[in-house]
Amino acid sequence: MSEQSMNLLDHLDELRKRIMITLASFIFFFIISFIFVRDIYEWFVKDLDMTLTILGPLDIIWVFFSIAGVAALALTVPVLIFQIWLFVKPALSQKEQKVTLMYIPASFVLFIGGLLFGYFVVIPIVFQFLMGLGEDLFNPMFTPNNYFQFVIRMTVPFSILFEMPLVVMFLTSLGILSPEWMRKNRKYAYFALVVLSVLISPPDFLSDVLVIIPLLLLYEVSISLSSVVFRRKIKREKEN
């Protein structure tokens, strides 16, 4: 077997190891979250002015699994980022290793920030708007399935998309991305973000706007952060 083939196998083995550790972490956090799922559920519905109605026993299972899954995903994010860092670590210099290591706690903060933004900012506005449309026409009755699908659609996408600045900084530090490229392709990125916003948000104009605006702002913030990382990278290369 050639040396190149052995290196490829070593990389694949290392990748498999990182994936297995991440999956094991997710399963562990899922079990812990499921143990406390009733407490998490009660926290989610404490401000709801109605009692959720179940149409069958499977609704309960779906809701509990969904809540535990989202909680486990949030707790697994730092582990996932750390495993990615360990995978690319051999290709980084010592300075790059120290800089990129700081992305791990930042990734968790951004993920939680996205969840909180979706839950405390977007959901109340969208919920009140949608309820107001049929206030005099319908008697609202939600199942846990309906309500938590709405909550998940309004929070999880934000938690993932809030990682955009961090991912951009990381790719810029590796030389894969540059602020100039992001500026040049801004219109294509805007189009992709608008399409993504329409797909992940409920089918009404207000929801689309509330999702589109933060995403476009995140893209502009990402360009600024990429510029900072790019200048520092160029400066270090000149010093070396």
Could you give a short description of this structure?
It is a multi-pass membrane protein. By secondary structure, the protein is mostly helical.
Q: How far from one another are the termini? A: 37 Å
Helix/strand structural class: mainly alpha
Q: Spell out the helices and strands N to C.
A: HHHHHHHHHH
Helix content: over 70%
| Major beta sheet summary | none
- What is the 3D shape? globular
- Counted by DSSP, the helix tally is 10
Low-pLDDT stretches: none
Number of strands: 0
Strand content: under 5%
Using only C-alpha atoms, the radius of gyration works out to 21 Å
What is the typical, i.e. mean, pLDDT? 84
Family: Belongs to the TatC family.
Subcellular location: Cell membrane; Membrane
Keywords: Cell membrane, Membrane, Protein transport, Translocation, Transmembrane, Transmembrane helix, Transport
Function: Part of the twin-arginine translocation (Tat) system that transports large folded proteins containing a characteristic twin-arginine motif in their signal peptide across membranes.
